[in-house]
Write a structure and sequence with these properties.
The complex is a heterodimer of chains A (259) and B (240). Chain A has 259 residues and is an alpha+beta fold. Chain A has 5 helices and 12 strands. The longest helix of chain A is centred in the C-terminal third of the chain and has 23 residues, at 164-186. Chain B folds into 2 domains: 1-137, no CATH class; 154-240, no CATH class. Classes of the chains: A alpha+beta (259), B mainly alpha (240). At the A-B interface, strand 4 and strand 5 of A face helix 6 of B.
Chain lengths: 259, 240
């Protein structure tokens, strides 16, 4: 399990207390809007400086959001002068004005998708994966999973969205991999109220599929049951396949028609 | 002079095949990838000097920065265009992978020539990497990274440019440069890369990564960041 210590005493700003959306022109990201930042309950000095940073690779741009008690919201940030806008992440920092000590933060924030739709698995077609078709990297919000698909495969975006063979072959394995990582590499600190936002989303996903997780999903916990965890992962993958049985049937039809 | 081009996926495959052939045969003929379908002309059409020789990464980066500025191309117009960087590496390949005295090519890993989208590799590219650093930090603060020949990677790039938080912060890079650059020679101070010497560059990275959790370094001046460093860095501070 990945241990997380907080020796600095920084407060964590949770994802649900803020809202970041992006704006596009001609399909290109040009700006973002921070329209909500709820700092209540964090015990911060009223004059502490608040910043939001957009970043990816070597690019970083910082915007002044005012002070804790005088936030400049909604804040519109211009991004068209940044080189890599498609995979931008955001960081919010609150720092003491005098000694520049960080008092609170939120990092690796991805902007929200439009229409309030919640995506648990961002897909990135930009990666150079050599001869691999896909891989999962944990570079998303809060260290969450991102599915990278090899851009060298012709028409891959269309295939990934619509092809039943890709759907049936790839996504169940991706789900297994992510849940295995979540439990056996990171460990879930609390199934009922996980501190990791992406753990919370994936646990909710299993519940939506009708599969209730075991009470303990932390291998370091005394009551952790490895078999129960493995069975749960299997059940979630099966439930996903059952939900999308139409894709399975579509694939069978395609194969039957193939001479 | 030649019009700059964008390498296509097909061109990248051919370049990759050529690269692999060179490992067993240094004299393997270079394919012509400056034609369709291997590459397509960059829009707008701008001409570059294909025979230009560069004595250092700094000279290469300055040339490109001036070239793009004169061509009215902004940093954000070119930096994410991997095919452009791959084609430029192909164009100047003979100086990026020169022959040694024994007649063998000095070839590095593929990511140094074929520009990768992978965040773990992109800064290693022999053309895109220097330009990325120079266009972000300017001539003076780039020297510490770009002093070496165009065909050599160095530990200053590896330790700083591989870390988003470090390479993106101008004040941090300036502090790094103040500590480790010998301003008289324009080259790194002796021992900066030593793993044994107190306050070496790896220690700088480690300490700053701890500061990152505590201080808002972006708002601090380079001198303030240097003042935060522990006594093991005194020798570097005293040695202007």
């Amino acid at each position: 399990m990945i241990q997380r210590f907080n020796y600095t005493g920084r407060e964590k700003i949770v994802r649900k207390n803020l809202s970041i959306t992006i704006k596009r022109e001609n399909d290109k990201i040009t700006s973002f809007v921070l329209d909500r930042l709820d700092l209540q309950g964090l015990n911060l000095p009223p004059d502490a400086d608040t910043w939001i940073e957009a970043y990816y690779r070597s690019e970083l741009k910082r915007f002044d959001c005012g002070t804790v008690t005088n936030l400049k919201l909604p804040l519109v940030g211009e991004l068209s002068d940044m080189a890599y806008t498609e995979n931008l992440k955001f960081r919010i920092l609150i720092a003491e004005r005098q000694n520049r000590k960080i008092l609170a933060h939120a990092d690796r924030l991805a902007p929200e998708e439009p229409a309030g739709k919640e995506f648990i698995l961002p897909v990135d077609f930009g990666g150079d994966l050599g001869n691999m078709i896909w891989t999962v990297k944990y570079e998303g919000d809060d260290g969450g999973p991102v599915l990278f698909i090899n851009r060298k495969i012709p028409n891959i975006e269309n295939i990934a969205k619509h092809d039943p063979m890709f759907f049936v072959y790839v996504y169940p394995v991706v789900i297994r991999e992510i849940l295995t990582y979540m439990i056996f590499v990171e460990g879930v600190d609390s199934v009922s109220d996980p501190s990791s936002e992406w753990h919370k989303k994936w646990l909710k996903f299993s519940c939506i599929l009708g599969i209730t997780p075991p009470q303990v999903l932390n291998p370091e916990h005394d009551n952790f049951d490895k078999d129960a965890a493995s069975n749960w992962i299997d059940a979630v993958a099966r439930a996903f396949c059952d939900k999308y049985v139409s894709k399975f049937n579509e694939l069978i039809n395609q194969l039957e028609k193939t001479p | 002079m030649i019009a700059i081009r964008i390498m296509t996926d097909e061109g990248e495959n051919e370049f990759s095949n050529y690269f692999n052939q060179l490992k067993s045969d240094s004299g393997y003929p270079r394919p012509d990838l400056s034609t369709p379908p291997y590459s397509e002309e960059f829009c707008p059409r701008v001409m570059i000097n294909e025979t230009k020789q560069f004595q250092s990464k700094l000279e290469l980066a300055k040339y490109l920065d001036d070239f793009f500025t004169q061509s009215n191309l902004k940093r954000e117009d070119v930096l994410g265009r991997n095919g452009l960087w791959t084609w430029l590496a192909y164009l100047w390949f003979d100086q990026l992978a020169p022959f040694d005295n024994s007649g063998n090519r000095l070839i590095g890993e593929m990511a140094k020539y074929i520009c990768s989208s992978d965040y773990r590799d992109y800064y290693r590219h022999f053309v895109a990497g220097p330009y990325m650093i120079y266009s972000l930090h300017g001539k003076n603060n780039s020297r510490i990274f770009l002093y070496s020949p165009v065909y050599e990677h160095n530990d200053f790039i590896e330790q700083i440019a591989s870390r988003q938080f470090l390479i993106a912060h101008r004040n941090l890079v300036e502090a790094f440069s103040i500590l480790y650059l010998d301003s008289a020679s324009g080259k790194p101070k002796r021992g900066a890369q030593s793993r044994k010497k107190p306050g070496n560059i790896r220690r700088f990275v480690r300490i700053v990564q701890q500061f990152e959790l505590t201080y808002d370094l972006y708002e601090m001046r380079p001198e303030q960041i240097i003042d935060l460093l522990p006594p093991e860095f005194d020798a570097w501070r005293r040695n202007p």
